[in-house]
Amino acid sequence: MQQRRIGNQTVSAIGLGAMPLSTKTDRPSREDAVATVHAALDAGVTLIDTADAYAADESEFGHNESLVAEALASYGGDTSSVLVATKGGHTRRGADWELDGSPAYLRRACEDSLRRLGVDAIGLYQFHRPDPDTPWEESMAGLRQLVDDGLVRLAGISNADIAQIDVARSIVGPALASVQNQFSPGWRFSADELAHCEAHELAFIPWSPFGGVSAAGSLQSTAPAFAEVAGELGVSVYRVTLAWHLAQSEVVVPIPGASRPASIQDSAAAADLQLTPEQLARLDAV
Ligand SMILES: NC(=O)c1ccc[n+]([C@@H]2O[C@H](COP(=O)([O-])OP(=O)(O)OC[C@H]3O[C@@H](n4cnc5c(N)ncnc54)[C@H](OP(=O)(O)O)[C@@H]3O)[C@@H](O)[C@H]2O)c1
Question: How far does the centroid of ligand 1 lie from the alpha carbon of residue 208, in Å?
Answer without folding.
Answer: 5
